[in-house]
Amino acid sequence: MSHAPASDSLPGPAPVVARTVLVTGGARSGKSLYAEGLVSAAQRERIYVATCTPFDDEMRQRIDRHRDQRGEGWRTIEEPRDLAGVIAAESTAQSAILVDCLTLWLSNLIFAEADPEAETARLAEALRAAPGPVVLVTNEVGSGIVPDNALARRFRDEQGRLNRRIAELADVAVLVAAGLPLVLKPSHLQPEISL
Questions:
Q1: Given this structure, which CATH class describes domain 17-187?
Q2: Per UniProt, where does GTP bind (predicted)?
Q3: Residue 27 annotated as binding?
Q4: 25 annotated ligand-binding residue
Q5: pTM, entire model
Q6: Cβ distance 178 to 29 under 8 Å?
Q7: What are 100-132's pLDDT values in tens digits?
Q8: 188 is an active site residue
């Protein structure tokens, strides 16, 4: 006879109240769906900030699928470059903002010949000042081969720096792989590792 408590009676980690959440992962990993679920579960006004510029039919269809997936109850703001301005203007204690995604935002900045480092600093300041929670979706792009051209290498490097900067200030960072969320931060939700 076992004296171990039933697994459903074991205490789990205490819930984390987060103002800034970074959700990262690869293509089609489930990161957007996971982020949408976080914002949908909040009892707040839901604001979706789309950074994508629909440049062809496939991208327009993708946007339509995402909109259908979210369903009703979301206010959508399309802003390809001024994320700091949108967050400053729209974040309230009664709202939750979902930014999808930082990767397309960075692409837009690079193609507009803007300064990604300066814009990331503006974004970081807006996130720190936001009265309501903000969930940001991004992509892990540096896990593959070294790109064969200077622009692609610059993008990969800028994306890595952007992700690190936002993860550093985020209360919670989650990597979604194969549809499974892996909490990277805060570290108390991860097992302690010792050697």
A1: alpha beta
A2: 25-32, 67-70, 78, 100
A3: yes
A4: yes
A5: 0.86
A6: yes
A7: 999 999 999 999 999 999 999 999 999 999 999
A8: no
Domain regions of the chain by residue span = 17-187
Task: Answer yes or no: are the C-beta atoms of 130 and 94 closer than 8 Å.
Answer: no
Instruction: Select which of 18, 40, 44, 66 is catalytic.
Output: 66
Query: Cα separation of 192 and 75, whole Å?
Result: 40
Distance CA 185, CA 162 (A): 16
28 belongs to an annotated ligand binding site: yes
Task: Tell me which residue has tokens 């440049």.
Answer: 55
**DSSP string of 62-131, one letter each residue:** HHHHHHHHH-SSEEEEE-SS-HHHHHHHH--TTEEEEEE-HHHHHHHHHHTT--HHHHHHHHHHHHHH-S
Tokens of 160: 């890595």
| Six token digits for residue 35 | 């982020």
